[in-house]
Design brief:
Layout lengths: L3 E7 L4 E3 L2 H4 L9 E8 L20 H7 L1 E2 L1 E4 L2 E5 L2 E6 L5 E6 L13 H10 L5 H7 E8 L2 E6 L6 H5 L8 E2 L2 H14 L7 E7 L3 E6 L10 E8 L3 H10 L4 E2 L4 H8 L6 E3 L5 E6 L12 H10 L2 H9 L27 H10 L6 E7 L5 H14 L1 E6 L2
Parallel strand pairs: 3-14, 3-15, 18-19
Antiparallel strand pairs: 1-17, 2-16, 4-11, 5-6, 7-8, 8-10, 9-10, 12-13, 13-14
Helix pairs in contact: 7-8, 9-11, 10-12
Length: about 400
């Protein structure tokens, strides 16, 4: 069962703040040069270097798609575009998917990338989507070094969504020969991939250094050296931008982003990512919990002023949402969010048996977004739902 989630608005995974250094290299440059430093909003874990163990989150793909590549994946302007595979096709009965690799692909260490690596990578994957993929995929057939077929047990329209998007990391291809030589732990210490950047070094909890890979199939990156620093505190990321210590800062909280926006040397850029903020009360399934009452959950929906939270925490760049599935995703239900109506919220509370409000326990917020969390608590308190923040 899915915990009750009240959508607020699509969240920008990255609010990029670019300065002259990053913009200096023209998009078509064939020889990468210079260095760019990005202040990352989370601690970068070694598990993010290996697609097979990547956690079920969107954030690790910032590292994964830099080092690795997939047969099919999202990239501008495609939601699901051909990458290592130059083409793919589905059989008429929906039970077979055939992919044709681009000729001449190589991993960062010079080893050729073939369908043996595709099969190995899929069978090695043990992440969040592993069980459903294993239950649905009957076998992976190597037809030629450039052609591979996935045979399903029965038609499954969601196969490409799981294999060709960020729904899982199962589609990322890793080198069979290299991993066989160094083992899983050796691979995490020094990953080899086929993405636009190759791994150089990692200081645990501090930074990861990558270097442009000249043999990348799509085009050589403009920036030669890419440094990702772990800086969980938003204000510190903003200070690093202003001092020149960082060229890009990911996910700035509203007040910090507002301060940077006033600096003419920089610009705030929304990622327009398919992601959603929500408020969650996981105790809803407990009949003894107040959140089990639908009227209380509806009261919360009407208590929140999504647009005002958007303005305060996101500079107006995160439009309010009505469901937890982002609007830009295929077949997403286009629903407007419940209106902010404090009177309606209090009425629903009274109907649920709380005419004077209630002490609703702890509110556990998403780390790194204090303005969102504080705004939510303030709106709930105005309706009579009193909660205490629990920091993580």
């Amino acid at each position: 069962m899915i915990p009750f989630r009240i959508p607020l608005w699509p969240r920008p995974l990255v609010l990029s703040l670019l300065v002259a250094l990053l913009l200096a290299s023209p998009a078509g440059a064939q020889t990468p040069s210079g260095q760019a430093t990005m202040a990352w909003h989370v601690t970068i874990a070694p598990s993010w270097f290996d697609p097979s163990t990547a956690p079920p989150q969107i954030t690790p793909f910032g590292i994964l798609y830099a080092i690795h590549d997939a047969l099919v994946r999202p990239y501008p302007p495609h939601k699901m575009g051909p990458s290592l595979a130059e083409s793919w096709k589905e059989s008429a009965d929906g039970k077979t998917y055939e992919f044709k690799l681009r000729p001449g692909l190589k991993f960062h260490n010079g080893d050729p990338l073939t369908t043996e690596d595709v099969k190995f990578s899929f069978e090695r994957y043990k992440g969040a989507g592993a069980k459903i993929l294993q239950d649905r995929v009957q076998q992976v057939e190597i037809v030629t070094p450039l052609v591979v077929r996935f045979h399903l047990k029965e038609p499954w329209p969601d196969f490409m969504s799981y294999y060709g998007t960020t729904a899982s990391a199962a589609g990322l291809v890793v080198p069979k020969k290299y991993i066989t030589q160094v083992g899983d732990e050796g691979f995490k210490k020094h990953p080899i991939g086929a993405g636009p950047y190759k791994f150089v070094s990692h200081k645990p909890g501090i930074e990861v250094t990558l270097e442009a890979y000249p043999g990348y199939w799509r085009r050589v990156p403009s920036v030669k050296t890419w440094v990702m620093k772990s800086v969980p505190e938003a204000t510190t990321r903003a200070v690093m931008l202003r001092s020149g210590e960082a060229d890009i800062a990911a996910v700035l909280d509203g007040p910090d982003a507002e301060g940077v926006k006033r600096d003419s040397r920089m610009q705030v850029v929304p990622s327009k990512h398919a992601s959603i903020f929500w408020v969650e009360f996981a105790d809803q399934w407990d009949p003894k919990s107040p959140w089990h009452d639908k009227r209380l959950r509806l009261a919360v929906n009407h208590a929140l002023n999504r647009q005002q939270i958007n303005e305060a925490a996101c500079l107006g760049l995160c439009p309010p949402a009505g469901v937890i599935v982002p609007r830009i995703m295929d077949f997403a239900l286009q629903v407007e969010p419940p209106a902010h109506d404090l009177r309606k919220a209090k009425q629903l509370l009274a109907e649920a048996g709380y005419p004077n409000g209630l002490e609703a326990g702890e509110f556990v917020a998403i780390p790194g977004f204090p303005t969102v969390a504080e705004s939510v608590l303030n709106y709930l308190a105005a309706a009579g739902i009193r909660m205490k923040m629990r920091g993580i």
